[in-house]
Amino acid sequence: MLPWLDARTYYRNRWGSDVGRIGVDGGFSCPNRGPNRSDPGCTFCSENANRPPYQAGAKNVPQQVQQAREFLTSRYGYEHFSLYFQAFSSTWAPVDRLRQLYDEALSCAPFVDLTVGTRPDCVPDEVADLLAGYQTPEREVWVELGLQSCHDSTLARVRRGHDVQAFRDAAARLRRRGLRFTAHILYGLPGEGTAEFLETVRYALAEGVSGLKFHDLMLVPGTPLHRDWQQGLISPVDPQAYLDAVAQAVVELPPQIVLWRVYSDPEDRKGPPLPGQRWSKNRFLNLLRDEVARRRDQTPATGVN
Ligand code: SF4
From CA 259, how far away is CA 275, in angstroms rounded? Predict the structure, then answer.
């Protein structure tokens, strides 16, 4: 058992069983990438909306759901599913189009939740209203907001195209409607280290997140940040430094906060190798578990909230 509330434990506690997450690509883009996903975007962005092999050939969202459901049921025996609009900014469309897409996808299976990943500046009131309408006693709605950093100077430096106020505004809209939301936070953005990462975690908690996703910055070939690394302007994230930062964050988290992700498995990634050292996911999780236990043994349980 992990010493933090991971997705599996959350789902078991909430729904009494394991839940298979079905990630779908609704064909969205994002304000940074423009209508065709072709503009430069954030300097770290390598979004290519790759689908898992079991969704190959699916022509639309219902087909993606159907193929994923068949695979997850036969491979893992899942009976409950989460619908995750994952690719790009999955609220960046007119509300009528969003309603049509979400309705169509939700009709494909009895999902225990609808999760949409998006940018903080893509959740106006009418979108928040739409999402709130999908909440029922049998179905939660989660909004995953890309915060990345609580420092405006960093957001400007990586060309996010929104500021921290945008997150503050989105969080307020979601809170008012009783919607759960997760903040996605990057460790190791240019000019940032452990102190800035922990400040962002604490900021997100103060804004009322119900969940967090952590990710160490990856310098993906083809991105502006990878070119900066080639020119010796930045360094890859040190996995030990990232581990220490995440351990400190975990120690400070209130126990009800869901940690949806703390590390990505490098084996899941296709394409050319990344600069820097990458640990396997299992190695990272084992070391993190030990480090969190060690810190909890040494630290009075005060928390940050
Ligand atoms: S907002 Fe997301 S999808 Fe758009 S450019 Fe930035 S990281 Fe990429």
Answer: 26
| Strand pairing class (180-187; 258-261) | unpaired
- Distance in Å from the first CA to the final CA of the chain: 24
Instruction: Evaluate if pTM is beyond 0.90.
Output: yes
- pLDDT tens sequence across 254-293: 999 999 999 987 777 778 889 999 899 999 999 999 999 9
What is d(CA 249, CA 209) in angstroms, rounded to the nearest whole number? 14
Q: Positive or negative, the Cα torsion across 75, 182, 147, 123?
A: positive
The token pair at 140 is 């939660």
Hey, which of 43, 47, 118, 186 would you mutate to test ligand 1's pocket, going by the most ligand atoms within 8 Å of its Cβ?
Answer: 47
Residues lining ligand 1, Cβ inside 6 A: 30, 32-33, 41-42, 45, 47, 88, 119, 146
- Cα 170 to Cα 174: distance, rounded to the nearest angstrom: 6
In Å, how far from its chain's centre is CA 263?
11
User: Which domains are present in the chain?
Assistant: 7-298 (3.20.20.70)
- Positive or negative torsion for Cα 213, 10, 252, 248: negative
